Amino acid sequence: MPLLSERLIHPVLGAKVIILALGVTMLAHSPGKGSMNPKLANEPGFTVIGIEARTSNAKEMTPDGVIGKQWARFVKENLAAQIPNKADAAVVALYTDYASDKDGEYTFLLGARVTSASQAPAGMAANRVPSGRYAIFASEKGPVAKVVVETWQKIWSIAKGSPGGDRAYQTDYEVYDERAASPQEAQVEIHIGIK
Is residue 183 domain-resident? Predict the structure, then answer.
């Protein structure tokens, strides 16, 4: 497991947690062990406002990775509080605009669901999560960084043709809601767009 970590004050949790940004990204886009039975759902679309950056898994495995820097900025500048028209208190980490698959570039957006994107603050972007079919994976309960990494590892072990294994590489997202209120007993949902 990568050694890089940053201690941050999580905007939803309001407590210190270890966010293994590089580790989460590397493991989220690399094969792992284990298996899970996701809930499959047709979800309505929604809009997220937040800060975004273009990156790739190869870039995230170097000191030039941007996801950890985005989390640090989001927390340091209290950007969650600056997002207008929030639909709820959850933080959403969005992976979208894939150039191809896990080996291509994608856009990472960190923010919140909104009811209207008409007032995106300067320096923030709005991105529409399309309606569609998603495989929804709930992590185990435990330390937030650990359970997110483990869940991504399990997602990547799912064979094509199995529930959740036929990824669309259009939009995926993580939800940090009230179930992540305790950093040591957090549960996070990961929604994977599927064909």
Answer: yes
Tell me the pLDDT tens digit for each residue of 139-181: 999 998 899 889 988 988 888 888 888 999 999 999 999 999 8
Distance separating alpha carbons of residues 165 and 177, to the nearest angstrom = 25
Q: Residue 50 in 3-state DSSP?
A: strand
Distance of CA 118 to the CA centre of its chain: 23
Q: Where are the alpha helices (DSSP H) in the chain?
A: 21-28, 57-60, 67-76, 144-157
CB contact at 8 A, 86 and 169: no
Whole-angstrom Cα Rg for the chain: 15
Look up the pTM and report it: 0.81
Q: Are 107 and 84 in contact (CB under 8 A)?
A: no
Residue 1, domain member (yes or no): no
Q: CB–CB of 33/153 below 8 Å? A: yes
Closest listed residue to residue 11, CA positions, set 68, 92, 102, 65: 92
**Structure token digits, residue 88:** 């709820």
What CATH number does residue 147 fall under? 3.20.80.10
Please give the residue range of the domain that contains residue 89: 6-194
